[in-house]
C-alpha cells in the first residue's frame, strides 16, 4: 500500500532518541528548550511551547485566551474534529464558518457575512480558529482586519502548515493572530510521535500557556503570589494539565526539523509533477494564492461528485491508500444535532480525495498513482 502520508525516520533521528535514553532526563530535560528555541527561530516568533499534541495545544490556546462557558468559538468544518473539540472542552459553543471552495480554507467573505449577522443578534464569537487546509495559510490579513473590527481573538490551527509561508514570512509568526498551533503527528510535516506546540508573541500570554501545560504551576519566585520562598517552593495558580512533551520526543523533533525546508521543497516539486502529469485528466487541484508558500501536507484533488466513490475504491483496490480530508465536522454524530450544513463545505466534501504525498515517496510510486488515475478515467 502506498499511504497518503508517512513519516521519514533516519539514522540521525534514531541516534537522537537513543542519546536521550542514555541521558539523565526522559522528560523535561534540555531537549525541550532546544527544540522550542529551534522552532522559534524557524518560524520567527519569540515564544514556542511544546505540548503532548496539537489537540492539547488547541485546548490550552482556548483557555489561555479566556474561552469559557457562554463564549462562542468559530472554526472551519473542513478540518479534523480537534479544531472544534477544543472549544467544547472549555464549555464554549462552537459554530462553523463556510469555506472558499477553491482552497478549502475558511472564506473571509463568509466570515465577514456571518459576523455582520452575529453582531445584530448579539452572538459574536470571542475566538475564531482558521485552519490552514492542506498547508495553505488562510487569508490572515483579512481575518485580522475582521478581528479588529469585531474584537475577537484568533488561533491559527496550522497543524498542516509547518514550513509554509504567508506574505513571504513563515506561518507561526503570529503577525495576524494571537496564537499559532502546530502538530507533530506522524502524518504531519515533521513528527515527534505524538506532539504539538503553541507559538505566541505576547510574553504574558506565554506565561499563562506555560502554566496551563504543566498543572497550573510556576516555579519562578518572581511570579509567586504567596510569601513562600523556600528552595523547594512552587505555586499552583490555576487549574492546568499535564500536557507536556517528553525529552525523547523533543530530541526526535529537533532532529526532524533540520530536514523541514528540504521536505517542503520536495513536496512542492512533487505537487508540480502531479499537476503536470494529470493536466489531461478530469481532476482539479486546489488554488494556491500568490502570497502563499503551501507546505502541501495534503495533495487534495477534486473530481466529479458522481465519480468520487468509484475512484476512491479503485485506488484502494490497487493498493493506493487514499483518504478523504475531511468529513465536515458538523456531520459527526456528536455535532450534527446542533449544526446546519454549509453549502460550500458540503459541495467541496463531495468531490475531494487526498492522493499520496510525502517526502519519502519515490518517483516510481508517484508514477504508479498517476498511471492508475489515467486508467480509471479512460
Ligand atoms: C492533526 C490535526 C489536529 C490534531 O493534531 P494532534 O497532534 O494529532 O492532536 C488538529 N487540527 C488539524 C487541522 C489537524 O490536521
Could you write a compact summary of the structure shown?
With 378 residues, the chain is of the alpha/beta class. It has 13 helices and 17 strands.
What do these coordinates show?
This protein is an alpha/beta fold and 378 residues long. Helices cover 39% and strands 15% of the residues. It has helices spanning 11-21, 30-43, 54-64, 82-89, 108-121, 140-150, 203-213, 247-257, 260-277, 305-317, 333-336, 343-349, 363-377; strands at 2-3, 47-51, 72-76, 93-97, 127-129, 153-157, 165-166, 169-170, 179-183, 196-200, 217-218, 235-236, 284-285, 292-293, 299-302, 320-321, 352-355. The strands form 5 sheets. The chain has a 7-stranded mixed sheet with strand order 2-10-9-6-5-3-4, with helices on both faces. A 3-stranded antiparallel sheet has the order 8-7-14, with no helix packed on it. It has a 3-stranded antiparallel sheet with strand order 13-15-17, with helices on one face. α2 (30-43) runs parallel beside α8 (247-257). The longest helix is centred in the last third of the chain and has 18 residues, at 260-277. The model has no long low-confidence stretch (mean pLDDT 98). Pyridoxal-5'-phosphate binds at residues 53-55, 79-80, 82-83, 131, 157, 159-160, 183, 185, 196.
Counted by DSSP, the helix tally is 13
Number of strands: 17
Estimated helix fraction: 25-40%
Q: Helices and strands: which structural class?
A: alpha/beta
Shape: globular
What portion of the residues fall into strands of 2 or more residues?
Answer: 15-25%
Overall pLDDT metric: 98
Report on the biggest sheet: 7 strands, mixed
Low-pLDDT stretches are none
Ligands, ions, cofactors: pyridoxal-5'-phosphate
Order of helices and strands: EHHEHEHEHEHEEEEEHEEHHEEEHEHHEH
**C-alpha termini separation:** 23 Å
**Lateral strand order in the biggest sheet:** 2-10-9-6-5-3-4
Amino acid at each position: 500500500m502506498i499511504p497518503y502520508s508517512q513519516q521519514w525516520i533516519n539514522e540521525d533521528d534514531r541516534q537522537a532518541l537513543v542519546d536521550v535514553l542514555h541521558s539523565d532526563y526522559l522528560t523535561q530535560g534540555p531537549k525541550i528548550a532546544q527544540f522550542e528555541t529551534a522552532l522559534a527561530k524557524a518560524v520567527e516568533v519569540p515564544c514556542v511551547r511544546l505540548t503532548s499534541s496539537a489537540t492539547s495545544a488547541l485546548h490550552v490556546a482556548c483557555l489561555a485566551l479566556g474561552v469559557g462557558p457562554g463564549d462562542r468559538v468559530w472554526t472551519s468544518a473542513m478540518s479534523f474534529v480537534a479544531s472544534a473539540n477544543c472549544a467544547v472542552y472549555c464549555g464554549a459553543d462552537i459554530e462553523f464558518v463556510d469555506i472558499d471552495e477553491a482552497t478549502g480554507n475558511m472564506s473571509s467573505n463568509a466570515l465577514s457575512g456571518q459576523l455582520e449577522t452575529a453582531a445584530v443578534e448579539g452572538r459574536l464569537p470571542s475566538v475564531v480558529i482558521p485552519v490552514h487546509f492542506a498547508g495553505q495559510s488562510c487569508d490572515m490579513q483579512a481575518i485580522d482586519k475582521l478581528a479588529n473590527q469585531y474584537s475577537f481573538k484568533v488561533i491559527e490551527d496550522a497543524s498542516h502548515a509547518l514550513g509554509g509561508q504567508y506574505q513571504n514570512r513563515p506561518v507561526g509568526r503570529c503577525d495576524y493572530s494571537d496564537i499559532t498551533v502546530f502538530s507533530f503527528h506522524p502524518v504531519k510535516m515533521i513528527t515527534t510521535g505524538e506532539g504539538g506546540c503553541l507559538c505566541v508573541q505576547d510574553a504574558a500570554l506565554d506565561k499563562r500557556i506555560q502554566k496551563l501545560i504543566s498543572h497550573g504551576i510556576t516555579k519562578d519566585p518572581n511570579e509567586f503570589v504567596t510569601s513562600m520562598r523556600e528552595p523547594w517552593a512552587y505555586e499552583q495558580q490555576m487549574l492546568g494539565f499535564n500536557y507536556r512533551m517528553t525529552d525523547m520526543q523533543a530530541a526526535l523533533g529537533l532532529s526532524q526539523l533540520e530536514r523541514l525546508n528540504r521536505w517542503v521543497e520536495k513536496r512542492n516539486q512533487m505537487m508540480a509533477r502531479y499537476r503536470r502529469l494529470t493536466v489531461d485528466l478530469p481532476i482539479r487541484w486546489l488554488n494556491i494564492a500568490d502570497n502563499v508558500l503551501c507546505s502541501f501536507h495534503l495533495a487534495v484533488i477534486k473530481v466529479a461528485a458522481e465519480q468520487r466513490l468509484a475512484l476512491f475504491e479503485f485506488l484502494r483496490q490497487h493498493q493506493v491508500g487514499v483518504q478523504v480530508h475531511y468529513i465536515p465536522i458538523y456531520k459527526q454524530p456528536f455535532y450534527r444535532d446542533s449544526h446546519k450544513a454549509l453549502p460550500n463545505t458540503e459541495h467541496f466534501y463531495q468531490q475531494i480525495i487526498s492522493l499520496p504525498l510525502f517526502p519519502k515517496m519515490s518517483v516510481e510510486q508517484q508514477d504508479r498513482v498517476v498511471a492508475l488515475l489515467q486508467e480509471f478515467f479512460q
